[in-house]
Structure prediction request, 692 residues.
Amino acid sequence: MEFGWSPEQDAHRARIRDLLRDTLPADWEELSVHGPGSDYQTDYSREFCKLLADQGLLIPHWPVSQGGEDMPVWHQFILGEEMWAAGEPRGAQYMNVNWVGPVLMKYGTPEQIERYLAPVRAGEAIWCQGFSEPSAGSDLAALRTAAVPVDGGYRVSGAKIWTSYAGKADTCFLLARVPASEGGAAGKGGIVILLTDMRSPGIQVKQIPALVGEGDIHEVFFDEVFVPAADRLGEEGQAWEIINFALANERTGIARYEFSRRILDRAVEKLKDEGRWGDPVVQDRAGRALMLCEAARMLVYRVVDAKAHGSPPDAYPSVARWAVVQADNGVNDFLTEFLPDGLLGGDHVQQAHHQRAIAAGVASGAAEIQLNLIARRWLELPGEARR
Amino acid sequence: MNYELNDDQAGILAGLDQLLAAHAGGPSGEPENFFYGAALDTALAESGFLDIARIDGFGPLDAALVVERLARLPQVVEAAASALIAPLLPLEPGERPLALVSGDATRPARFLPVARHLLVLRQNDALLVSMEGTSIEPVESLMAYPYGRLDSLNGLSAQTLANAVDIRRRWRIALAAEAAGCMAAALDTVIEHVRTRQAFGRPLGAFQAIQHRLAMAAETAESAKWLAFRAAWSDGEADAAIAAGFVQERIARFTYDLHQFSGAMGLTLEFPLHLWTYRLRALAGELGGASMQARAAAQAVWGVA
Prediction:
């Protein structure tokens, strides 16, 4: 047991920081205020990810056979940590490299792998995640968007909501349900995953104004959209397994605590400039926010370490996610109380952090679902079925 | 970065577990506020586990692993100060137990009734006081440690030490590691209880209101553990203050919830939960409590002013 970085890991991190410093526009802080899902960052991601690809830093953790370098798990994580802390200049494409690509490699047909991974490797692909619906958010299995089997594929009708990146996406990782009337199984077994071309006739995307940033979330309507059977990922009935694999990667993919920690560092500098750092109350509250960031870091690192050791998946990502949500909100609460002007037009970065923090407990499923998972899978508490 | 035990660490803990197996079964007799493990203390002293940080190739992390493991036991022994603080003091291996107090030397101190030395941590220095031939006034309390206090320092042999900063840092690490072990054991106790205790026709643990708070308690226990081990590994000011402050900040909520889910049983001495929660409550107020640690962490990371 030890908690230090190897010289190779330090060098990897330094290389990424240098690249970010030399590449990001001078006014990046202002440009990135609306977050990775904004129109600006989605467009910028195509430029930035191309550069990352040229430098071998877009998919280094992928297997060599898929264009990667089999880079160790920790190197991949350091890359993600630095990117998120810098405001995630990969925009929507962080999702491609973290889980869309790995999911396709594991479950895709050779044709799907060939077709979809090439643009990801080139840093050009924008995916959106068609999971949540008006009546199915964290309770994903309640989704109702219908995929009616027809000759050669499916006709999809329904609506998705709170969909990030949909306005600019090329492809949707769409979850839909084969209706029972068409032979679909009940519950999770009736779900299919359709890799849906967002230019297909019958798709309409509408942006939803939101607290979390301009252009970040959308409604997506599907009206008799034809999706070829060749674009179904996995078999009918296999979707839930694939989704769990995808979410396990998604939930630890974002190093939110690192952005929070850097915002906290920045806030203290500002408080010093204003002559307020000598106040023991300010120090106490900053220290408590710091503790939350470091606790989250230790738990996320524990998840990464288990992955690096090839340990089988467990419920620890849920434990870590809860700590991450506490850290994001703890820092946000500190900033809101002690530097309120930052949210009144005074500080783009603080506002950007605020917008990330208020979404931290909701994005990729309510954090309370993680508490359920910790209780059942980590603490092995009895479920309702044992009543 | 490696969260798994290396071969040496695994060997130490396996050896410790072997020793502890001989003391398994926990305390017997009438329920008490705490059970002082006198026989275990002797066995530990003879085995050398508490001197691990003094051995070449080993250090504070190995000591913290031992302390965390021992804190899970229902019986209490003085391990944290001996394993993590004593190596900084002019004490030979085995010169223990060591009692600690901060500020006024006559405040109640954990383990003072059994201690060979009392370490008094003051703002800028420390006093190492020999307890030989001294009578200690026991302090009755709910806390699950033997407490005692001195009338005064008059007539006692005391040595002034300049390394107060180092002592305070190690005390924070010791506190964090001990609290982490207590949390793990307390949580295990309550998890077992809510799995089996039935109410309204189902186990308590099947109620979501309880599940969620226990899940949060699990996050607390895990965070406390890893922060403590990191602090022991780095032996750094910021990490130590973060680890101690985090766990102290969480103790109130953690112990409240665990007692709450144990109901009236948890208010009795027959139910063992207090053996850990009343160690935690004692630790919550050491070194000035969470706020002092939070401010120390803030100053260590960002400077004084």
About this structure: Residues 165-302 of chain B form a domain with the Butyryl-CoA Dehydrogenase, subunit A; domain 3 fold (CATH 1.20.140.10).
